[in-house]
Amino acid sequence: MAKATSVFTWAGTDRHGKATKGEITAASVTEAKNLLRRQGVSATKVKKLSKPLFGKGREKINAADICVFSRQIATMLSAGVTLIQSIDMIAQGHAKAEMRKMLIDIGNEVKAGNPLSSALRKHQEYFDDLYCDLVETGEQSGMLETIYDRIATYKEKAEALKSKIKKALFYPTAVIVVAFIVTTILLIFVVPQFEEIFSSFGAELPAFTQFVLAISRGMQDYGLYVGMAAVAGFVMFMRAYKRSAKLRDKLDEKMLKIPVIGEILKKASIARYTRTLSTTFAAGVPLIDALDSAAGASGNAVFRDAILFVKKEVAGGMQMNIAMRATNVFPDMVNQMVAIGEESGAVEDMLGKVASIYEAEVDDMVDGLTSLLEPLIMAVLGVIIGGLIVAMYLPIFDMGNVV
């Protein structure tokens, strides 16, 4: 069983007598000093890093960290560095304490003689079944270096695609939230000041101004309750979303019908499916298992169900391109490319080309959507904020007639 490790800060001098300091992961102060000594460091001070208050500074491991780790392992293995040395070097140089601790644990498992895939499976929240299966295939075939290069490429492509999708959704969402906050502040704090001024006019206010004042009074009287109800509704929806697979599947289906956004999500799902299948094919994973992994990696319930249907039909002896065509989910171009790949025996290459095509299309659509949304959002903001200002100044413009 692996020993529990902690992070230690240290200060000392290197083999050239130069003062230096840093952090190291070890099971005890003594082990930390021994590790530093092996690195040529004469430590004068070694202190266990205390856990930060309220968890501040404890950065969580994210998908980008796993992506970088995969590329580092692939690079080091291709350079002739042993697996254990690679893991130790990455662990010692990583900036995140959580990542260092996990890599130390993985390294200890491998040093104890366990396969890397087995060590990775103990951290399923970071290394999914596809990742572990590919590593296991590489270990069994003696091609871990080649397989890890494919894993790293796959993770990099997946992260780049995910980043593009987030970019498409984040900008309009952020602007809408800011616009809502600004509008709420104006209605609750600014408009009432004008209402006090208007009360002394002694004349009927324009209909548009009365409409805005009514909204302002409603926000003041019921805004808190509406806000609480909205928060409660959001929390309840998120809980239902996590618990109900049926709700998630229904939402996935609806998302694909949203103009422009739905098309981006479709192309992204196809790109993930073909990229995953290409990677698993190249690693020598059986087609049935590869389709199972691709279904989970597609990122959308509609495509997941379609891929599982393809898996079932392929297991029954049907060609993959015919099964894909029967789902009525995949575009004709994708079906034709897969058919050509099956006829020529180059399915892996064809799938890789399809993935590259659709990844490029997602990039172009996201850039186009962003360019389209920027002026559109500015126009909407101008109408909302400008409308409030006009509503407040209409009575002032008519003041001369009142007087």
Give a brief description.
This protein is mainly alpha-helical. The chain has 16 helices and three strands.
Describe the protein's architecture and organization.
This protein has 403 residues and is mostly helical. The chain folds into three domains: 45 residues; 95 residues, Receptor-associated Protein, CATH 1.20.81; 243 residues, Up-down Bundle (Receptor-associated Protein). The chain has 16 helices and three strands. The chain has a three-stranded antiparallel sheet. Helix 8 packs antiparallel against helix 15 and helix 10 packs antiparallel against helix 11. The longest helix has 55 residues. The protein is flat, with a radius of gyration of 29 Å. The termini are far apart. About 1% of the residues have low confidence.
Descriptors:
403 residues, mainly alpha, Receptor-associated Protein, 3 domains, 3-stranded antiparallel sheet
Sequence-ordered SSE layout with sheet pairings:
Layout (H helix, E strand, L loop, with lengths): L5 E8 L5 E8 L2 H10 L3 E7 L14 H16 L4 H11 L3 H15 L4 H6 L7 H13 L2 H55 L8 H37 L1 H11 L5 H22 L4 H11 L3 H15 L4 H8 L4 H13 L2 H51 L1 H4 L1
Antiparallel strand pairs: 1-2, 1-3
Helix pairs in contact: 2-3, 2-7, 3-4, 6-7, 7-8, 7-10, 7-15, 8-15, 10-11, 10-15, 11-12, 12-13, 13-14, 14-15
Approximate helicity band: over 70%
Mean pLDDT: 83
Secondary-structure element series: EEHEHHHHHHHHHHHHHHH
Discrete helix count: 16
CATH architecture of the largest domain: Up-down Bundle
Within the largest sheet, what's the order of strands?
2-1-3
How far from one another are the termini?
89 Å
According to CATH, the homologous superfamily of the largest domain is Type II secretion system (T2SS), domain F
Number-wise, the strands total: 3
Which residues form runs of ≥5 with pLDDT under 50? 52-57
**Main beta sheet strand tally, sense and closure:** 3 strands, antiparallel
Number of domains: 3
The helix/strand class is mainly alpha
| Rg on CA atoms, Å | 29 Å
Principal-axis shape equals: flat
Tell me, what is the CATH class of the largest domain?
Mainly Alpha
CATH topology of the largest domain: Receptor-associated Protein
Task: Please report which band the strand proportion falls in: under 5%, 5-15%, 15-25%, 25-35%, 35-45% or over 45%.
Answer: 5-15%
